[in-house]
Amino acid sequence: MHDWRNRTTAVLSPAARYMPSSPALDRRTVLLSVTAMIAAGFATRLHADDLSAEMILNDPDTPVGGNPQGDLTIVSFFDYNCPFCKHSVEPLNAVLASDGNIRHVYKDWPILAQSSVYGARVALAARYQDRYQDAYSALMRIDGSGISEDRMRQELERAGFDTKRLEADATRHHAQIATLLKRNNAQAEGLGLRGTPAFLIGQFLVASALDEAGFRQVVKDARKAS
């Protein structure tokens, strides 16, 4: 995980802790019940409508993939300069494709570099061409971190985008995109996230990269818990 700042996370009650039912998950991976966080008073920071559980799960301006009517929701917080986020893309996509009943909510959270902000802005601008997932996939294919804006443009063009049009759309819809990114950041901070990637899988918060087996196990446990 990319830890972007030193901060103290909320102290959770013992009931908030969740132990994976399978060794497929790394023992260091921490899974926390969102319901228990609320019961422990952690959600007192989520007082505004924009920070509500409803907005985290169902923000109308946030891109959604997978099965929009799925019986389970996975919310991903990520940065296009985060190698761990990129390593999680293929395993998560495999689970989404094989399961067929999972809704995937994309939370662009550009915290690692200025180019991360550029990537998030143009990816969200691609929504106005109904191509957000194409832009997301193109940017996530770029290896490593510290990626330049020019490198991002090259990969977007390779994916068939007219980057001048994309940047024009980002400028035209600047206010909406900036507001969404601020909202995503506030939600991440409200959940006590320290870096990327982070996943809300049903009622569990997974603050770690996962492999395919890890995603499958948490999905299984989240459905049992619900």
Could you explain the architecture of this structure?
- The chain has 9 helices and 9 strands.
- Helix 3 links the parallel strand 5 and strand 6 (102-108).
- The model is unreliable at 3-30 and 34-47 (pLDDT under 50).
- Helices cover 45% and strands 15% of the residues.
- The chain has a single domain (28-225), classed as 3-Layer(aba) Sandwich (Glutaredoxin).
- Helix 3 (83-99) packs across helix 9, helix 4 (114-125) runs antiparallel to helix 5 (132-140) and helix 4 packs across helix 8 (174-190).
- The relative contact order is 0.22.
- The chain is globular and about 45 Å long.
- A 7-stranded mixed sheet has the order 2-3-9-8-5-6-4. Strands 1-7 form a two-stranded antiparallel ribbon.
- By secondary structure, the protein is an alpha+beta fold.
Short description:
The chain has 226 residues and is of the alpha+beta class. 45% of the residues lie in helices and 15% in strands.
